[in-house]
Amino acid sequence: MNNFSVHAMLQQMPYFAHVAEPALSELAQQAVHRTFAANEMILGEGEPSAGLWIVENGRVKAYKLSPDGQEYILRFFGPGDTFNDLAALDDAPNAASATAVTAVSAWVIPTSVLTAALQADHQLALAVLQGVVGRVRDLIGRVEDLALRPVTARLARFLLEQVENPALAHPAITRALIANHLATTPESISRSLRVLEKAGAIRFDRHRIIITQPDILRQQAQL
After folding, report:
1. Which residue has the higher pLDDT, 135 or 93?
2. Which of 3, 119, 123, 204 has its CA 20 to 30 A from that of 132?
3. The whole model's pTM is what?
């Protein structure tokens, strides 16, 4: 696997869009390619950080485990997404675990390489800072959802996010995984899907969920 593909990916990413060509080529040359089978762990919580991960193909879930082994999925990632950003920036242990939901092809930029690039390029540092702030705001919104909104509203918001993030619409993102993401059960997800279908917000095409009325879905999401 050559590094031309990661170079093209970096050019399309908000983090690296304004990085000058020599520096971008250096980042691409230092990136390491990795592949993972479905359900294979990519990184473990508390382990040393390998760096900034970039998904080339496939779907990844980042998650935490409770003391009794219950999984809570923090976020799903698809092609072009980065993950493990925090540990890559502060060189601390991984803050969460990540596992391949499907077969995954990914690149990792070592922390030392990313740190040097950030020190040399203030625009890159600002772009990364803005990206991390966006992730923090997203997590705050999810905490608010868990505390204040019923399952149907949380599910409606999750489905709306498919429009902006096609990674969520992949068939491998099952009802069980959605339940782990929304801190509920697959049975509750099924009941809420029927509520949304009856309201006219969605329809089913075999196992696919099709959004038919985004406005109704926004009402159900209590946005």
Report:
1. 93
2. 3
3. 0.85
